[in-house]
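Q: What does the predicted 3D structure of DUF4159 domain-containing protein look like?
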Amino acid sequence: MKQILFLLFILFSIFSYAQDVAILKYNGGGDWYANPTAIPNLVEFANKNIKTNISKNPQSVTVGSEDIFNFPLLFMTGHGNVLFSDDEVNNLRNYLISGGFLHISDNYGLDKFIRRELKKVFPTLEFKEIPTNHPIYNQTFKFPNGMPKIHEHDKKPAQGFGLFYQGRLVVFYDYQTDLSDGWEDEIIHNNPKSVREKALKMGANIIEYAFKN
């Protein structure tokens, strides 16, 4: 097992220099493909404002595929059910403990499913709210109050949760905000420019943090 993890770590180290982002495709019936313009718009913003060099045409990768090791950052969203098989659980865990990073954006309705499935990946870990002084809120763009609110659903505050493995943040989960909705083309949600800008800046911070850590 240790030898396998070591080989996976080497594989990840080789490919992480590509600094690309992939959309995570999962089973269970949830719409993993939601917000199709979100990642391309965020990539364009990040390339321009934090000088990344990310491909403008993001790939989709399945949870159980070795292809996830080609990407330092995976993005996941949707409204409905998520279901990881045992093989997918093992693959995602190996990816995350080998240096990978997963950003989950709750597009409303994902919460109970993603909490259940991430418990399979890390049975002993609990989601913790990320404090406002954490580096993810203090990259190129500063968010002294933490997660910005983009969309309103249940009149609850926007929150950013994380899973920490051996002290390292490996999963970042934005909740009650629909952060990725704010990345989409303006015509889709008619968000004001100021709201879209907040969402894009926070998204750029997530990318910057993931690439550095």
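A (community wiki): The structure tokens above were generated from the sequence. Confidence is low (pLDDT under 50) at residues 9-17. The first strand starts at residue 21 and ends at 25.
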